[in-house]
Amino acid sequence: xxxxxxxxxxxxxxxxxxxxPARRRRARRREQRWPAYVFLTPWMLGAAVLTxxxxxxxxxxxxxxxxxxxxxxxxxxxxxxxxxxEDPRFWRSVGTTLLYVVIxxxxxxLLALGAAMLLKNLGRGRAFYRSAFYAPSxxxxxxxxxxxxxxxxxxxxxxxxxxxxxxxxxxxWVGSPDLAVYVIVLLTVWQFGAPMVIFLAGLQQISPxxxxxxxxxxxxxxxxxxxxxVPMLSxxxxxxxxxxxxxxxxxxxxxxxVSGGEGGPADSTLFYTLYLYERGFTASHMGYAAAMAWLLLxxxxxxxLILFRTSRSWVFYADEEGR
Amino acid sequence: MxxxxxxxxxxxxxxxxxxxxxxxxxxxxxxxxxxxxxxGDVSSGGVTLTFSWWGNDDRAARTKKAVELFxxxxxxxxxxxxxxxxxxxxxxxxTQAAGxxxxxxxxxxxxxxSQYAGGGALLPLGxxxxxxxxxxxxxxxxxxxxxxxxxxxxxxxxxxxxxxxxYDSAVxxxxxxxxxxxxxxWEEWARANRRITDLGLESPDGRTVVGANDNGVxxxxxxxxLRSRGGKLxxxxxxxxxxxxxxxxxxxxCDKLRDEGVVAEAEDTSQANTTELSPMGRGLAAADFTWDAxxxxxxxxxxxxxxxxxxxxxxxxxxxxxxxxxxxxVGAGSEHPKEAAALVDFLLNDERAGDVLGFTRSTPxxxxxxxxxxxxxxxxxxxxYEYAQRMEKYGLDAPPPAPPRGDVAIQTAFKRAxxxxxxxxxxxxxxxxxFIDEAERELRS
Lengths: 323, 445
Prior knowledge:
The complex is a heterodimer.
Chain A: H1 2-7, H2 21-61, E1 64-65, E2 73-74, H3 78-85, H4 88-120, H5 126-139, H6 143-153, H7 158-165, H8 180-190, H9 193-205, H10 208-216, H11 221-249, H12 253-258, H13 272-282, H14 286-314
Antiparallel strand pairs in A: 1-2
Helix pairs in contact in A: 2-14, 4-8, 4-9, 4-11, 5-9, 9-11, 11-14, 13-14
Chain B: H1 14-30, E1 47-54, H2 57-73, E2 77-84, H3 86-98, E3 105-108, H4 113-118, H5 126-130, H6 141-144, E4 148-149, E5 152-153, E6 155-161, E7 163-168, H7 169-174, H8 186-199, H9 219-228, H10 244-260, H11 266-270, E8 287-291, H12 295-302, E9 306-309, E10 323-330, H13 337-349, H14 351-357, H15 367-374, H16 379-394, H17 407-422, H18 428-444
Parallel strand pairs in B: 1-2, 1-3
Antiparallel strand pairs in B: 3-10, 4-5, 6-10, 7-8, 7-9
Main location (chain A): membrane
Membrane topology (chain A): Multi-pass membrane protein
Region (Disordered) (chain A): 1-28
């Protein structure tokens, strides 16, 4: 906005004082906004046609029984009610997803922070290691990697064989209801590169003066970490936490690949999104699937809101120092 | 944006972090249900038909060749073909049906008939059958009825499949078990499993070779078991044909054999998605229940000592039946229903098409063509052809009408529910109760 007011006089037309100043300013602003909207049109069209309309349709479908063949039939809250009160698999999928989020997100963030701390002080080779650690984040979302992962942890897979040769006989993880979910947890944690790069950027933002001052006061490395790094980095931690949490709730590809699309064995990898997909595309209950999608949206929204609210007590923003 | 003050790095502002997080939230959430596909139909003079199927490369090559023959016979008709693997084909066809148009001619799964016919996606074929555009005189009448929905013919079977039992005859001989006959019983089968396990043969990974795969996951085999006792899977389009007690008995039987260690372990059963990964394919078990069409895959993998035998019975009554492995239907929105019907007839009844297509969709339903093609078969393919003839001679009950709409979901639910038994997460009765609840919910909706 400041750019608008500084440039405004140069484009002023008509003698001053013919119109009240406030009205003139408003008129000018209107005049100068339309090019912005013109340039935004492609994006807004895309957002409307590809995002808002499908979302509205999906909200409507969530109140219907729709099998792709017959026209949607209005059932009110029936889908939501069935989901919450009659469907044991829905709750199993919620349990599996929560277990996964609670384990995978902290592990991934800790690993990312640890790696970022190590890389921060690395002189030569930092660019190489940064790229090397980041690579899995680029590859990890692909179906291929998930299939490789499945092979590694299957009966006769390398990981299982190596563990077996050192006396840890686990059997195939993929076939075990207790272990299968950890195959997916490990695949997620392995992709710690993306939050790591953000942590690294955050670490580099912390002024060296703060560390110097802390060192002069006799703070050791641990003290410096706790009293300087952690508070200064807390906005970045918060950012990564929110992002990873949202992504983890929506994990799909690895669960689909590792379980062969069925969420097995015995529903142990039946993530929420996988169950949603199964309801919609295998069982042709699009209304039910849409209801699940909307419930997920609401729940993620609520959890994000809670994170934002609690963040006030633990996230430190440097620009709030004076307040 | 203001310049950072001299020397000091700009600390992250609250607003920047909040904005970034908000962007992250919104982009992450836009990943939602969306699948679209549409195909424009361009015909340039004459008639253009579309025809789609699922299946492997061999089937694709043979089908395209048969289509070329059809085009030569019908000048002015062009057929545009498309094919995919089973999973994506099912989804694509469902989306096309929702968008108002499946191809003029489409290969369909038995489980789709009720849904597609009931949903108005298929053209009734009564007229084409009445005026002889599509001929069924060379086909088994009962078998043709598998394409009925509410008394109307919506599709015609393209191939005829039957369940059976792939077993390693060398192991069976060593254990002194006679060759399984069409009237062998489930008790004999259980005893065979015990004797094979008692041999103590070592599998490639060092464990003892067991009698067979655990067939508790296999709804097709449960259906054979039910039929052999006079029951059926579905009473109607909205009702199951069996009770909690029936299923509990079946699963208890399977569960007990696995507990005894004479059929495959839970971990091996849950990984058995392909022939290669099945306990028999991995050398862990001496036998497996399977359909006839995939059987040649077992001999290719394990050798010629593997043979195809009948599914056990309760007391001589065979539960296996001839099932359409796939059907052909005409899209309700087809602009050229006459030509589409002609293509259906050509693929089913023309001798030259029959020669080209061979057994790529298991036994052709046209008896004349099946016998003609059978003369050229050898090895495992010949064995499944002879098996089918033997079973026909032995006598099988009529196949059930097309399964209800929810059948796809019910079949996966069956497998999943038994997984809970396998891993001791539920008793056979509790799992049966849960499965029946789910199946009934599926049939109601």
